[in-house]
Amino acid sequence: MTVRRKYLDGRYGQLHLRIAEPVASSGRRPVVCFHLSPVSGAIYENLLVQLGQDRLALAPDTPGYGASDGPTEPPSIEDYATAMAEMLEILAIPEADCIGFHTGSKIAIELALQQPRRVRHLVLISTPIYTPDELRAMRVEFAPMTIRDDGSHLTDYWQELMRWRGPGQTPQDLMRYFGTHVSGGERRHFGHRAAFQYSNADALPRLEQPVLVLNNNDDLQEYTRRALPLLKNGAILERADWGHGFLDLHAAEFAGIARTFFDRAT
Prior knowledge:
Blueprint: E1 4-10, E2 13-20, E3 31-34, H1 45-51, E4 57-60, H2 77-90, E5 96-101, H3 103-114, E6 119-125, H4 132-141, H5 152-163, H6 171-182, H7 190-196, H8 200-203, E7 211-216, H9 221-224, E8 234-239, H10 246-249, H11 251-262
Parallel strand pairs: 3-4, 3-5, 5-6, 6-7, 7-8
Antiparallel strand pairs: 1-2, 2-4
Helix pairs in contact: 1-11, 2-3, 5-6
């Protein structure tokens, strides 16, 4: 199956997305995949191939990331979600299921709150709940990158990716996306800034849609477990054997989990 590319005109300029779809319509709802910061929809290519066998599957580059134009001023998660709602409107998608990864999970949550009749199910890869002290520490850790003449900021960032690489993820796997990680330049921190200003603790209890939280063995594992009491209609699936890179290493299995959840009667 071929993953195609497409551009749409959005509020911040051109919005880039990847699309996979079956030859004949199956009648199943499309699925929209939102990536983590600061990468792009490229992380979903293998998953799109799997999900696109029986439904329209698409992964936009969040405005300012990948090949999408972005805002000049820091946006909020609400702004990102509104841009994604406009994308669904342009594509004439009346109903969709959503997958979100880290920052993308918050975009998916907010989109579901803004468009409760359009968004039917949510699969969220991590839904961290922070204490005030933890949130302050996160804002320091994910502050804008300091650019150094000797390029050591790049090696420091590489070592951080190596520190959090998932089970089975190789340096070659990391290198596949390294350019995307740093391509946002001076605005690459916008997504993290928006994420740390958005409260999952406030948003999750307002969701009426069925929610499946995937809690992988990554940097948000501990914080994500705290979300369970806040889910009105949801569950947490623990996968200590998965981590960063699982979308490449376990695309078929994850597609099966998502497909089963999306297609259940509601």
